[in-house]
Amino acid sequence: MSKDKTKRNTAYFHLPGLFEFYELYRIFLSLFHEHREYFYDWCEIGSIYGAPSDCIWGGGRVEDETCDPSDALALMQKYGISARLTFSNSLLRKEHLSDKRCNTLCALFSESSRVQNGVIIHSELLLDYLKENYPKLYFISSTTKVLTDFEAFRHEVERDDFRYVVPDFRLNKQMDQLDTLTQIQKNKVEFLCNECCWFGCKDRKACYEAVSRKNLGENREHHCTAPESEQGYCFSKAMQNPGFIGIEAIQNVYFPMGFSNFKIEGRGLGSALILEFLLYYMTKPQYQLHVREEIYLDNMLDLF
User: Fold this and answer.
1) Is residue 216 scored above 80 in pLDDT?
2) pLDDT tens per residue, range 131-143
3) How far from the centroid of its chain's Cα atoms is residue 47's Cα?
């Protein structure tokens, strides 16, 4: 989605698992376009993001690849949806820039004919490299930067390098400060809605760095010490997080303030949980069973 096409009072959702959940999106996107009446008229799909397995530029999560990148891109092109490569590794060095697999993906996604594709990015080194070598791509400042200081976040939004900036989820409810942004700046803000991480976590950056090291082939685990971390992701728990943004808040708080972009996390969580996100954020309650049935009955999709 181009920033000059932003419609007021429309939520542009940026969805997880471009490669990992290809089969789910193959069915869901067909329903979304053929049965638009099933879904809220105030929402659109802004992008779908992810990275194939074994990408050293990857960050945020280590995900499993379940489809050919050309197939994933073709699906996005079919429905006019921007595809984003999640290349948010924060620890890249100059020798990593020549990686064949990652460069091949950037070249592939650069040649989109229908809609512009982007890269979610952390490393300044990689940003400079991509700007020079793949100028047709746009860039998103990654939430892995853990921007919890509002003035640092504002500075990031002011940078021309980025079409969108994803702040740390703990800035989601800083309403007085968020309202000081200009409308042009608000159009660049992409809120992470459904984070389950402990609101008081002080190790978030270290957690992301551990994922970056793992993608680089370094076998270092990060052991989370947050309360109840052993339970893993739970959507009902995420809904209780002080930073959670639900559909009522989107319509009644963020729309009136002039915000339109909302990111849903979920890479690595499994198709069944992603479906629950799609139902909650995008599907009218009276049609949620219809969507579930269409997806559950597809023999190509293993939700569990």
Assistant:
1) no
2) 999 999 999 999 9
3) 8
